[in-house]
Design goal:
alpha/beta; Rossmann fold; Hect, E3 ligase catalytic domain fold; 3-stranded mixed sheet; 17 strands; about 20% strand
Length: about 525
């Protein structure tokens, strides 16, 4: 089994066929249906069809149907079971943002395109909404026919059953291995590495991790903060530079450190691990322990004691404009930090990469207020526009009707034509011809094309943000790519630095502010 590499798959005969097909496309009329080719492959084996073969077969299919190929959405090393069409890198871009550019979506086989009935149903609904067609090279699938619609549902069900069978086999393997004391598959918890023991796969303690964890335990028992421990561990080289406080605490709270098998506890929205019990109701030991049960329990009590003094988390996070406020020196995000001492509790903004977090900016709310006023002044009066899809099929049909009617009357008004026999019939025909010509001239050519249109809902962003609060504004600023550089300058004789804000707004901010509806937002 090998991963597909595009550069090595095209042969001389493939390239020659591709050139012939492109020449045939050049002879198609201007109004020929536009085809998008969808190519997908998880891995390339002797039993699978290469992406090159898929593309050439689909180009041949496009030629048979008189379609012009306008694009190729090639998503390789992508699972159709795990990733639906609208979330794939290339096909997703076409479906979400380039729908006006094609009329029919061609794919090699249904299981190359989709493997879940719910995803198939979603795509059929999307095609109906946008006036697109789905056509398969090797299945009787064509949404323009009743039989084709029935076949797409039937074959989709078979593909989902096959995917479910594969999923069941994988789940069964995991269910078996999680009850064994040998380590067959999976990534071991921090502190352990895979090895062989008595010919069986097992886990061994990693020496540096052992040192780091025991040092962290001793510091926790002394009341040292997790943040301080993380900094020391990184500086010592015992843990990687990317270590965060939350990661360190998660490692220290993992019951796997006692040598037991664990699984992720998905309840409560917090990442935690819990013990897996064997058939005898006892934890399953898979390795020598890094901590004894007494050592582990003492560590948890120490972490809990320290944690009780921490302030309660805010509903929307401590930092209101996270991802918008950045440090002018290190470009990292500004975040709110809380310090508690005998005089009270203090909040201040600081960055993540400057030494010691840089100069702390007190009064985060004051910084937010300045940012809000600046944003309202610059962007508040922009109209809220929503992108909507407009089909040109109705306008095209009307243009065709008018052109045929005009041709009919022009033929009738030629010498010897049916309308030249009497003066009355000629005058009436000329009036009708003028009327038809005026109607044709009044049709905007743009309305005959499938296109995105911008609809103003009557509100400005100022109104939206004033009703939605800072959360709504922050979400829009992140979506658009607006950032605010924070400069902190030391003032002689004053503990708190002076703070200056500078908005950085993209040149195409008006286009970016357009709200683009997500047709697949509610889909998993």
């Amino acid at each position: 089994m090998k991963t597909y590499a595009v550069e090595t798959e095209w042969t001389a005969s493939d390239l020659a066929l591709l050139e012939d097909l492109k020449k045939a496309e050049a002879l198609l009329p201007a109004d020929a249906p536009r085809a998008l080719l969808s190519i997908r492959l998880s891995v390339l084996t002797e039993d699978t069809t290469s992406p090159v073969r898929q593309e050439l077969d689909l180009r041949l299919l496009a030629r048979e149907k008189g379609c012009r190929v306008v694009g190729i959405a090639s998503d390789l090393n992508v699972s159709a079971t795990k990733v639906p069409p609208w979330k794939r890198k290339e096909l997703g871009e076409w479906l979400n943002n380039r729908a006006p550019e094609f009329d029919v979506l061609l794919f090699w086989k249904l299981d190359r395109f989709i493997r879940r009935m719910s995803d198939l149903s979603t795509m059929i609904e999307w095609c109906e909404r946008y006036g697109k067609n789905l056509v398969s090279k090797n299945d009787s699938i064509d949404l323009e026919s009743t039989v084709g619609r029935m076949m797409v549902t039937l074959i989709g069900g078979i593909a989902e059953i096959e995917a479910a069978n594969t999923s069941t086999r994988v789940a069964s393997l995991w269910d078996y291995t999680r009850t064994q004391d040998a380590w067959f598959v999976g990534k071991p918890a921090y502190g352990f590495v895979t090895t062989k023991k008595n010919g069986k796969p097992s886990l061994a303690i990693e020496p540096n991790a052992y040192k780091a964890l025991h040092w962290a335990r001793r510091m926790a028992l002394r009341g040292v903060s997790a943040r301080r421990m993380a900094l020391c561990l990184v500086r010592s080289g015992l843990m990687s530079p990317g270590l965060t406080t939350s990661t360190l605490l998660r490692r220290l709270r993992n019951p796997a450190l006692m040598g037991y098998r664990v699984e992720e506890n998905k309840n409560g929205g917090v990442r935690r691990s819990k013990l897996i019990l064997g058939h005898d109701g006892k934890p399953i030991r898979v390795a020598d322990p890094i901590f004894t049960k007494e050592e582990y329990d003492e560590l948890q009590e120490a972490i809990d004691r320290r944690g009780k003094n921490q302030p309660q988390r805010q509903t929307h996070g401590a930092t209101q404009f996270l991802g918008v406020l950045t440090c002018v020196d290190c470009t990292s995000n500004m975040t709110v930090h809380v310090t508690t001492n005998k005089f009270g509790q203090y909040q201040y903004l600081r960055c993540q990469k400057c030494k010691s977090g840089g100069l702390g900016a007190p009064d985060p709310q004051g910084v937010y207020d300045v940012l809000v006023n600046d944003v309202l002044r610059v962007l508040g009066d922009f109209p809220v526009q929503v992108r909507e899809y407009a089909q040109g099929a109705e306008a095209r049909a009307e243009v065709k009707r008018l052109e045929e009617a005009i041709a009919y009357y022009m033929t009738g008004l030629e010498p010897g034509g049916r309308y030249t026999k009497t003066r009355f019939t000629q005058e009436q025909a000329e009036k009708t011809l003028d009327k038809l010509t005026d109607e044709l001239s009044a049709i905007d050519p743009e309305t005959t094309q499938d296109r995105w249109t911008l609809v103003h809902n009557g509100k400005t962003f100022r109104e939206v943000w004033e009703s939605g609060g800072m959360e709504a504004m922050a979400e829009d600023l992140r979506r658009v790519g607006v950032t605010c550089e924070v400069t902190r300058t030391k003032v002689k004789g004053v503990r708190a630095p002076s703070v200056h804000l500078r908005l950085k707004i993209p040149r195409d901010v008006r286009e970016r502010l357009v709200i683009k509806g997500d047709d697949f937002a509610a889909k998993l």
